[in-house]
Amino acid sequence: MTPKHCKLLFSTLLAGLFLLASCAVVDDLPLPLVKAEVTAFTVDGQCDADGTGYADAVIDKEKRTVDVYVDDLVQLDRLNINTLQVSHSASISVETPQGLVPLSKFADSNSGKPVLDFTSPVTIVLSTYQDYRWTLRVQQVVKREVVLQNQVGKAVIDPVNCNVVAYVLPEQDLRKVVVEKFTLGGPHGTVEPDPTGQELDFSFRREFTVQTKVSDAVEQWNVFVYHADATATVSASVFPHATKAYVNGQMQNGSTPVVEYRSKGNQEWSTLPGSQVEAGSVEYKAVITGLLPGTEYECRVKAGGQTSAVQTFRTAEALQVPNASFDDWSINGSGLQALYQPWGEGSEPYWDTGNKGATTVGASNSTFGTEDGRVYANLQSKFIVIKFAAGNIFNGSYLKTDGTNGILAFGRPFESFPTKMQFDYKFKSSIVNRGGGKWDENYGKYLTRELYDGLRGKPDSCQIYVALIGDQDEEQYNDNTYPIILRTRPSELKLFNPRSDNVIAYAQLTQGDNVEKWTTETLTLDYRHTDRTPKYIVIVASSSKYGDYFIGGDETLLQLDNIRLLYE
Q1: Are 534 and 467 in contact (CB under 8 A)?
Q2: What is the largest CA-CA distance in the chain?
Q3: What is the rounded average pLDDT of the residues 297-318?
Q4: Alpha helix segments (H runs only) across 1-153
Q5: What was the pLDDT predicted at 10?
Q6: How far is residue 472's CA from residue 463's CA, in Å, rounded to a whole number?
Q7: 262: Cβ contacts below 8 Å, ≥ 6 apart
Q8: How does pLDDT run across 314-333, given as a tens digit for each residue?
Q9: Residue 103: which residues within 8 A CB-CB, separation 6 or more?
Q10: Which helix (H) or strand (E) holds 358?
């Protein structure tokens, strides 16, 4: 473009801006759509659905609901809210019979924390230019347990009808049953009369008066004890991975489970070491390791002189991902707008980059390099005309350029259970000199304001991660289904969340130091759920960790090669 053409273009743009400004009439413009959402919610006594650990609140942005569990020590009618974060600094009001009341009016005089009655769902209204109604639901967990002498399996406890059904060995005299545990009121409730440690006659229905810590109500409970079927005193179920299998089941109280397994067709059984078996009163769980991928096995469990039914299972295949050496590339176009694509000419794409966005205003910054016969992904962070862009590569598809932002689909189908991911890489860091100036409230969903403000002037870091995910959060885009769709436009910001319950296993490397020579790195996947089969795998590498926020250093460079999945 000649200087004359540049001058003409600038004059035309300037005239257009003056025309827009002169036509703007504030009173005639609609108020901007600013969607307010709950981004974090915590309360006193928060726990998981079993009451055995902690779990984050489940936030459904489509239904505008928040669900959380609490233990039996808190009072639902006076529950402290520790965290209630919302987007866009929206004001928060509570819907009451008298109308909307600001949340601040419910603050405790001592702690300053809002205190609300959660015996029923609470409706709050988030206000920006528009109002958004959200429902907060808190469910209290009262962990009840009954364990009897020679009991077989877990007692069936029905808190709605206040009934308990337990089974004991056929030879157990129902008139003389010792009660070992009896927490029908939860760990902090009371039972009258308290039968713990007593020998009672359960040849007929027994009644107990139960009161929980969380309620003044007194309940009448019925306990029924029956003889178990002699052939059903030990059970087993198996959930196989690729090189291991998770076994769990129930048994008679006081017995020791012995887990045996073999490849199908083999006559000899192998006994799992006792160190790999965890036994409770009437339940057990175990992990069989050292199995071969894609192989059929059999498993059985012995306890108390009985043997479970034989369980047949097949381990998953040891899958790898295509073009993991990044040897195959193609180039579409020429010159500065040449689009580098991480797949061979005419091949089915598996990997993609952000180059489609970069080449709308400049050159591809995710390309390939060669060194001593090695072909690798060359991911360069740089400022491209108007915006900073991190070099990146991911298994998925770049769907659309939205202004100067991107819409991307992460993940490809995958149904196996790798234990580790290994790769070769080099990394050159530089000082963060781009971004970090303008905070957007939407960023608060994924990082703190303090971190955002503190990045500039610090050494840049690369990030490489792998995630195995389920299908709960699949999304539609142009009639196609994708496991994860990301949007980098701040007003619609949606990034990958490694803490999502949809993530079955995860591992990452964040590196801020220079790695001058080709180095092999091994990441160990942390399985959050061992009883769920992945549907997709997500692998992402970025030269600048905070590239999603357009933050990084102009000279940061990540070189990546030879990704492989390990099964150990």
Answers
A1: no
A2: 104
A3: 95
A4: 3-23
A5: 33
A6: 25
A7: 268, 269, 270, 297, 298
A8: 999 999 999 999 999 999 98
A9: 84, 92, 93, 94, 114, 124
A10: helix 355-358
List the end-to-end C-alpha distance of the chain, in Å, as a whole number: 58
Q: List the one residue out of 27, 1, 23, 34 whose CA is nearest residue 442.
A: 34
At residue 531's C-alpha, the angle toward residues 528 and 537, to 5°, is: 65
Cα of 450 vs its chain's centroid, Å: 24
Residue 144: burial class (beta carbons within 10 Å; 0-12, 13-18, 19+): buried
**Residue 43: how many CB atoms within 10 A of its CB?**
23
Phi and psi torsions of 524, nearest 5°: -95, 125
Q: 423 and 566 in contact (C-beta within 8 Å)?
A: no
131: tokens are 């109002």
**For residues 163-189, average pLDDT:** 93
Instruction: Give the residue from 325, 328, 350, 348 showing the smallest Cα distance to 340.
Output: 328
Tokens 């039968």 sit on residue: 195
315, 292 Cβ separation under 8 angstroms = yes
Q: Which three-class secondary structure state does DSSP give residue 12?
A: helix
Rounded CA-CA distance 143/52 in Å is 9
CB proximity list for 445: less than 8 A, separation 6 or greater: 39, 87, 493, 495
